[in-house]
Write a structure and sequence with these properties.
- There is one protein chain.
- With about 325 residues, this protein is mainly α.
- It has a domain of about 180 residues: A middle domain of Talin 1.
- It is about 90% helix and about 0% strand.
- The protein has 5 helices and no strands.
- It is rod-shaped.
- The two termini are about 115 Å apart.
- The relative contact order is 0.09.
- The model has no long low-confidence stretch (mean pLDDT about 80).
């Protein structure tokens, strides 16, 4: 494998790790944003239900005030029916607001019962008011018609019957409203828990991604050291041992293609250099031996020459002596 292949793999691995982190971060951000939006929507809906709950409570309070007034105060109490009529009109307005704004939260049948029961209660109250007015018009010691109390008691019974129906409808509306409120609060709590759960999950996966990325970077760093730095270091040590300490260059080829090629070339260069040095050393030794031999031969020739010169001198001396002997001087 060549160096550029290693570099390409390292780059791709780093980019994949970075992409993984970016992907995890974006996924976590999108998930939290979605959960936050859902929580905001549910909170807004809870606020709207809170307003609805207040409107419903106002209607319930007004309606129950009508019933309490009719039960507590006597029918000849001054202003009773005037206050009751005002409260009935207010209850009708409040019921219309509930039906128009929050009709989707309640069944049409339930709202219809409320409208009908409230109208019947209004009619029954008006009848009772007529009887009270008739009593008020009687002069002292004047008695009402013979069937007055029968009709009045019948109207009272009808009112109580209709009142009980309205009370039941009002109670049902209160139960539904309370259920909506509790359900909304529960949904907000659920959304909040879901948001916290997503935060914890995203934090875990993000931490896991960071650890994986660090592991990948560590692996790539170790692979880089093992593939580049370690072979180059071993090559340097082998070259130093071979050149400076005259040790044989013994190094197995490892690493990328370029480092293996450099190892082969350096090994061939050092081995060739060693062979050249050995060859030239042998030649030098051979020449040294030959020169020593020539020196010895020259020394022997010089010795022989000196001996010959000595012998020549001795011969001349002997010839002179012999000549003197043979020819004595006069």
């Amino acid at each position: 494998m060549k160096v550029r292949t290693y570099i390409a793999l390292l780059s791709v691995g780093s980019l994949l790790g970075a992409s993984l982190l970016i992907g995890l971060g974006w996924w976590g951000f999108a998930s939290l944003s979605s959960a936050t939006r859902e929580l905001e929507k549910e909170t807004q809906r809870t606020g709207e239900l809170s307003v609805e709950y207040k409107d419903v409570e106002a209607f319930l309070s007004t309606t129950r005030s009508i019933m309490v007034s009719m039960e507590v105060y006597p029918e000849n109490y001054e202003g009773l029916f005037g206050v009751t009529r005002d409260e009935l009109r207010e209850a009708e307005i409040q019921l219309n607001v509930i039906a128009s704004k929050y009709g989707q939260n309640y069944s049409e049948k339930e709202l219809k019962h409320l409208v009908e029961d409230l109208a019947e209660v209004k009619g029954a109250v008006l009848k009772l008011e007529e009887f009270a007015q008739q009593l008020g018009k009687l002069k002292d010691n004047q008695k009402p018609p013979a069937d007055f109390w029968v009709k009045r008691n019948k109207a009272k019974s009808q009112y109580e019957e209709i009142r009980d129906k309205l009370k039941q409808s009002v109670n049902n509306l209160e139960i539904l409203s309370e259920q909506f409120r509790q359900k909304s609060e529960q949904e907000v709590l659920t959304k909040w828990k879901d948001l916290k759960s997503r935060e914890e999950t995203n934090g875990f996966f993000l931490l896991l991604g960071v650890l994986l990325y660090l592991g990948l970077i560590s692996f790539l760093g170790f692979s880089t050291y093992r593939s580049f730095a370690s072979p180059i270091r071993r090559l340097e040590m082998a070259a130093v041992d071979s050149i400076d300490h005259n040790k044989p260059f013994l190094l197995a080829e490892s690493g990328p293609y370029e480092i293996r090629s450099l190892t082969r070339r350096l090994q061939g260069l050092i081995i060739g250099l060693e062979e050249t040095v050995e060859r030239r050393t042998a030649e030098l030794k051979e020449r040294t031996i030959q020169l020593q031999k020539e020196i010895r031969q020259r020394m022997e020739l010089e010795t022989q020459l000196v001996h010959a010169q000595k012998m020549e001198a001795v011969g001349q001396l002997a010839s002179g002596i012999a000549h003197e002997i043979n020819s004595p001087s006069q």
